[in-house]
């Protein structure tokens, strides 16, 4: 029997990682972990950890690695949410996180790293128009593609809003952080021998999804 894939999605904010991760999780019957969704859910519940993370998120800064590691180790532990196949969306975001992930996964490493490539000017436009479900169900809309019944999620009925860090100032700061801290992860994976595939992230979401699936299927 084929094992379920272990996939990392890389790409700028607004490249479509969240949208594609939800579809991939369904298609391959794998778990989906978005560290951003997880932090927002914790912040909404008002846990100490969530409120600490929110301080960084609202300003467009990365949450410190030590805080992120605690969460990830729990999810990746045997019997945890990510103990079989998974798609990671928004993690790793620094080289230290990528190294930690390799260490925690041990002898069942990532099968493929998919980089969704979209130019900066396109993601700035997408993020400014993006609207998300507050229930953190991962459902993403936009001003151009709103839900069918007002600003209420078609799938779970949650309110659909603009994220607090989707302001022009925070968007630019997050994209600068991506260039500085996250882009170098691609070189890390290339040099560590993990299959790394770059996908054109422009075009219809169905087309992009088909490109990603072909890349994943080719590695299984
Ligand atoms: P996202 O929903 O992936 O755009 O993440 C929203 C915010 O959560 C980011 O701007 C960071 O502040 C924080 N965040 C999410 N994932 C990570 C991570 N792996 N490392 C550090 N900060 C993160």
List keywords for this structure.
220 residues, alpha/beta, Rossmann fold, 5-stranded parallel sheet, 3-stranded antiparallel sheet, 48% helix, binds adenosine monophosphate
Give a written overview of the molecule:
The protein is of the alpha/beta class and 220 residues long. It has one domain (6-219): Rossmann fold. 48% of the residues lie in helices and 15% in strands. The chain is built from 9 helices and 8 strands. The chain has helices at residues 17-28, 35-45, 48-58, 65-76, 95-105, 120-129, 168-182, 184-192, 205-219; strands at residues 6-10, 31-34, 86-89, 112-117, 130-133, 140-142, 160-161, 196-200. Strands 2-3-1-4-8 form a 5-stranded parallel sheet, sandwiched between helices. A 3-stranded antiparallel sheet has the order 6-5-7. The longest helix has 15 residues, at 168-182. It is globular, with a radius of gyration of 17 Å. The structure holds adenosine monophosphate. Adenosine monophosphate binds next to helix 2 and helix 3.
